[in-house]
Amino acid sequence: MLHAGSGGAEVRQRTDGLACTLCVSTGTRDVDAALIAPRHRLPGAQGEDDSALTAGAGAPAG
Fold it and tell me: Which of 9, 34, 35, 58 could bridge to 28 as Cys pair (CB 3.0-4.6 Å)?
């Protein structure tokens, strides 16, 4: 487990690596898109509501 809340540079590096792997494997450029992409590629997986993931897309981090 990463324990991101209490981690330092190592946790950040591992998280960045995971995000990169996720994006490469789904052919996307950001984590939000990478989480949504499989739903549009897998048969029968399109019934889910993506609004929670897309609501913050493009919003500045604050």
Answer: 34
Better pLDDT: 46 or 32 = 32
Residue 10 pLDDT > 70: yes
What is the spatial distance between Cα 33 and Cα 14, in angstroms, rounded to a whole number? 20
CB 21 within 8 A of CB 9: no
23, exposed or middle or buried, with CB in 10 Å at 0-12, 13-18, 19+?
Answer: middle
Please answer whether residues 36 and 49 qualify as being in contact, where contact means their C-beta atoms are separated by less than 8 angstroms.
Answer: no
